[in-house]
Amino acid sequence: MMPWKNGPALRRLVTCLVLFSLVLIGGECFAAEAAGAEETTSAISLTPIWLVLVGIVSVLAMIIGLKLNAFLALIISALLVSLLIGFQDDADAGSRTEAVVSAFGSSAGGVGIVIAMAAIIGKCMLDSGSADRIVRTAVGVTGEKKASLGLMISGFILAVPVFFDTVFYLLVPLARSLHKRTQSNYLRYLMAIATGGAITHTLVPPTPGPLLVSAILGVDIGMMMAVGAAVAIPSAIIGLFFSIVVDKKMPVPMRPLGANEDKHEPLAEDQLPSLWSSMLPVVLPVALIGTGTLATTLADKEDRAAITSSDIESFELLSEKFAGANALSPAGRLVNSSQLTEQQRQSLKVTPADADQEASFIAAMNDALLDPNFYDEEAFDDVAVPEVSSKLMAANQLRMKPVDRRRMNRALLDAAYPELIAAHRWESPMRKTANSLGLWSNPNFALLLAALSAILTFKLVRNLSWRDVGVDVEESLMSGGVIILITAAGGAFGAMLSQTDIADTIQQFFEGREAAGVAILLLAWSISAVLKVAQGSSTVAMIIGAGMMAAILGGQQPPFHLVYVATAVGSGSLMGSWMNDSGFWVFTKMGGLTESESLRSWTPLLATLSIGGLVTTMVLSQVVPMAN
């Protein structure tokens, strides 16, 4: 008998994970049998799968079984997985511990300031009456029965230009204030915000995930926005109804997030701040981040690093350079790029005779410049690597936008052959505008300004001294600090699961699979979903899933537009969110829920959105195929 209260739920989850591993084991056995005994050495390694399963079981057992503090459980599990990786790779324990520390620091750096500012904003909006003013106004328009719909729509719209985490931080005070007014439906309000924010975060650009998926699959960003929204809307409606059902079956009380959360008396309606000053902490960061995102998207659309005919000094000399290129030369790296087909390689070695051949020549060069492995130290040994290329090569290559990768490689090519290719001009007026907004649209800075506006409103409405305000801010930061620690530990745990090479194992498992019609969409969704469960990041699951689907499809065109493959990948990345996902901890800790409550609300909610997105995608692909 299990020594914990939630034994059945844990058993079900562990059973699903074991079944997942058995599926991969069966796939390996089938592949080995079909290939013959002489090829068994190329069979899929099961080690990453078991390492991931060890991590999953350990963190669930410690949090749900032993009731251990989430931070300790996540750090211990991250260390356990990291040490097992070191044992497998013959790495010393010290370096594996440093890997956990580094991942923790990276995660904390990404969310620390944002969560701290969000904690201040939340407490100040609640104590100043700002959240109450917004809720009273919204309820006056929609009515109490439709309040959750208003929260869902708000999350849906705000998450298009802004990260899900930020949207949730900003809207949670409204959910808490609304619950104080209605004395019911707290979980429904939280899930409504999560529904709207999560679905657009994975389906509608310009958020990074769907933006990169559309680029990898060659889908126009406008098409991705339109179809992504069309898939997201019915899924969000399904998610809202699901939220109502869950709230009725397992109502959750609204718990205080800090020790002195309710120390200020509620204000009468005539004492509440104005609607405009109340909304400023929400509207200001969204406007700043959204403006910067829009400007960057428009600047990226120009794709100034792409080669044009006017950039080529001599097609004849350049084609000769490609034809006689050594494999370990810049020209050889471009011609032999894995991004090119054999036909494109041959086209680069022949001088174009007309405009159509010139266009094909240029297109092949631009395709090759998207190669993440274009740079080779030996090939560029006698080339002074431009500063912009050095900076971009040091950045996260997986999450790099195609426009930045092309810029990185174009600068290298410009430096290698200045006599044949004119240097590209990156700083267009739109790019300068986007750069000028870099500070203001930075989420950390935008939320800092929002926190200051919330503090000022709180001080003026409550007529407090700065010392008293400082005490309240300190209390909010104490509760925010715990959330930062847990979220960063979750990020470190997810990073260690990623280092098991589980993504490569999954990729090998699906390699060589062929699909047609609706089966393509099911495959795209499945790959993304398995990646999400395994390593926790929706964005990473989308990027890798889209890359795998591009490789599986090759030059083949499905009987519908590729945008549906993109939305299937995005929908799959919502499946199986649990404790290795930062969104899980944001929902849990900012909402004041227990881990068990989130596993029974957040996790199935995102699964519902995921399946809803897949079904909507399949229906639209048949009704409105828009075949390429």
TrEMBL record:
Membrane topology label: Multi-pass membrane protein
Pfam family, any one: GntP_permease
Coiled coil: none
InterPro entries registered for this protein in UniProt: Glcn_transporter (IPR003474)
Organism: Rhodopirellula halodulae
Cell compartment(s), UniProt: Cell membrane
Family indicated by similarity: Belongs to the GntP permease family.
Keywords: Cell membrane, Membrane, Signal, Transmembrane, Transmembrane helix, Transport
Principal place of residence: membrane
Transmembrane segments annotated in the record for this chain: 41-63, 70-87, 99-126, 147-171, 186-204, 211-244, 437-458, 478-497, 509-527, 533-553, 560-579, 599-620
Stretch forming the signal peptide: 1-31
Protein name per the record: GntP family permease
